[in-house]
Amino acid sequence: MKATHYPLSTSAPSAYGLRNCDIASRLEFLIPLLGSYEVLLKTVKRSYRILTSDIEEVIKPNFAQLQECGLTVCDIVKTNPRLLSFNPERIKRYVHRADMLGVPRCSPAFRMAVCSTNEGSVTARMEFLSRTLGCSMDNILIAVGKRPTILGLSMDNLRRKIEFLVTEVGLKLECIVECLGILRYSLEKRMVPRHSVMEILRARGLMKKGASLYGLIMQGEADFVARYIDTHKDMVHGLADAYNASCFGKMPVVPDSTVKKRHGRRDIYCRGFAMFEIWNLLSYMLDNYTCRSALHLADTLLEFSELQQ
Predict the structure, then answer these.
(1) Choosing a second label site near 65 at 20 to 30 A (CA), which of 27, 237, 270, 309?
(2) How many angstroms separate the CA atoms of 254 and 280, rounded?
(3) Which residue, of 150, 181, 212, is where some domain finishes?
(4) Rounded (5°) CA angle 211-155-49
């Protein structure tokens, strides 16, 4: 008896499917295909249907189609092993959709374009980006073709990032379209923490005028920390702790400390407001997406502290 798919509403679908299929023949085919029993086990944990789908009518045709597109077994298993158990006609639509996006089959982006989302969500996200960013679908197709992974993000996720970049960072919509790949990074763990560091350093005259948030966000973690945190740790005490904490969604209580600000050739040390008061203020304001106002107020408090010396 051949088994292909079983609805998720079926009681114990995996056990039902395994009882009604030739598991031995499937293992004989899948273990060599995937490379090892360990890889098969990991794959089954993500999608048991690879064991209940018909080898000749489902898995082999799907694998052949994806292989023709340049995808390897490793690519498929790591990204979305469920593809192997889908209706072959559905896989054809996925491949056609990726081709329509203009993603070269030889590029790593093609794998994500094929594997990440379904037809409905792709169309919805494309229309959402076109409407929200105020540009044509043709321009969105070009931008998404370079970074198709953003089509795997929810519309709420995209909306919050775009809102932050426009209202807090001050980016123009056309700039976001040009660097659409920025949307694939985490708002809470990447955008907000690095933007706060950028604003702090800029307010203290330690950031180059030509620096952009896009450049900061695109940098690897080690490079960013070395260039913007470690380099200025003696100038802005507590910056490293604040950045590390903000990446985990919280701000630290920094002990009352000396903050060093450079004015020409003079170094001024200030001890007015405790640093933890300023960081707590930043934390509150950042949570409400008003970091520009918070940073301005924090810098004003530091200036006031210096005048009291």
Answers:
(1) 27
(2) 9
(3) 181
(4) 120
Q: Which of 26-36 are b and which e, b meaning 16 or more Cβ less than 10 Å from the residue's Cβ?
A: beeebeebbee
Tokens of 63: 């694998």
pLDDT at 304: 44
* pTM attached to this predicted model: 0.59
In the block, residue with structure tokens 């955008």: 191
Question: Does residue 6 sit within a domain?
Answer: no
Pure H helices in 1-72: 13-19, 23-34, 37-46, 49-52, 60-68
pLDDT tens-digit readout, 127-150: 899 999 999 988 888 888 778 778
DSSP state, residue 307 = H
Task: Say how far apart CA 309 and CA 296 lie, in whole Å.
Answer: 21
Amino acid at 64: A
pLDDT confidence of 57, banded at 50, 70, 90? very high
- Residue 298, pLDDT score: 54
- Using one digit for the tens of pLDDT, what is the confidence trace for 2-37? 444 433 333 344 444 445 556 777 888 888 888 888
How many Å apart are CA 108 and CA 205, to the nearest integer? Answer: 40
How many angstroms separate the CA atoms of 238 and 255, rounded?
9
DSSP single-letter state for residue 219? S
Domain boundary (79, 95, 115) is at 115
Residue in 119, 116, 134, 6 with CA at minimum distance from that of residue 58: 6
